[in-house]
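# step 3/5: fold
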Amino acid sequence: MEFRLPAEWEKHEATWIGWPYNKEDWPGKFQPIPWVFAEIVRKIIEGEQVYIIVQNETHQKSAIQVLKKVGIDFSQIVFVHQKTDRNWLRDSSSFFVKDDKGNVHPIRFKFNAWAKYKNYKYDEKIPQTISKVLNKKLIDAEYQNRIVVLEGGAIDTNGDGTLITTEECLLDEKTQTRNPGFTKKDYEKVFEKYLGIKKIIWLKNGIIGDDTHGHVDDVCRFVNKNTLLLCSEKNSHDENYFILQENKEILQGEQLADGSKIEIIDLPMPKPLYFEGQRLPASYANFYISNAYVLVPTFNDVNDKVALGILSELFPDRNVVGIHAVDLVWGLGTIHCLTHEQPAEEL
């Protein structure tokens, strides 16, 4: 059976998200976070169902209170009960692939909290919960007698055989090692077997402040089969300047799986955001493409309008809106990190 990882802009059946509860993820800033989540959910349900993972009945009731106040249509929401640690569903959810008949299958890669944190025993069970809810068999991404570690934010695909990632995230052997001893060839075999990938484009590094150590969804994203949005920093004194320049040089020498040329569009960076002395991974590239909307994190920055304009031109069939993310990014991630799409079956 051959699998294919669909592009995010392909039609969704649903979006998965976890309702916030772990105050340690937003220390001192948790109070506004449920309202940000509510706004995200309010937009997504205009075009698809939303599965919301909650800890228990009490947690569900608190979510309902917030959602009611922003006028949510609950007919599009399904609550799923499961204890979690952090709820960054982009990374802890199963991946959803399609077979050659258009059927959707959940694939489990191992989640180990970005090879950094110890509290992930509940989060690593999320794929099992999803498979039970959907009544679909969970397929383990096994290679060399182990389940491969991979987070959704570490990769992006055009749905047509090409995947982009960073060496910092997947090949690092010192800081946050996902799969010790893995080479590019190993990843090629895994991604081809389970995700239908024919070509991997390897960027070097992710942005400064990224807690995940190099996730590509803060750096570079496919917006259609041939086009990549790449973060660009104009200030040569900024720590990200040379990182992003190097990634652009790599992309300019690359091509897609079918041999065609890549169109590269620059996406500006907001000015650096700090909280308690820590630089935060603020990036417009962490947008989420739902059926009805493209939800873009905004940061009270002059480039907010520029980023929204660029994405509006690229997605004329969707509403492109900003979601205030100055508080959200204190959790070291924004909209794309929180969500995970479930592709629609092809009947």
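# step 4/5: annotate
The mean pLDDT is 97.
# step 5/5: archive (pending)
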